Amino acid sequence: MGPVSALVLFAVIWFMILFIVLPLNLRTQGDDGEIVPGTHASAPSDPQLGRKARIVTIWALLVWAVVAGVIWSGMITVRDFDWFNRMSTPEVSN
To answer: pTM for the whole thing?
Structure first.
């Protein structure tokens, strides 16, 4: 895995974890009873994006380290996902 692939993998993991963390501890304007005119009652009153971005980054680094370690170690390769035997064997492709 090259540096660009590692960066793309980190970005995908970061956004996946972001979508998991965003609704956690969410206080809506309806919950607080202070609805800003022109917004829905379900809009967040204090989204705490900075705090959530730090949490997501820490978790994403941990998950990325595990996934990248598995990829770099060779425990799982692309050939492991060749369920229909469409890839040539390593001896033929050399």
So the answer is: 0.77
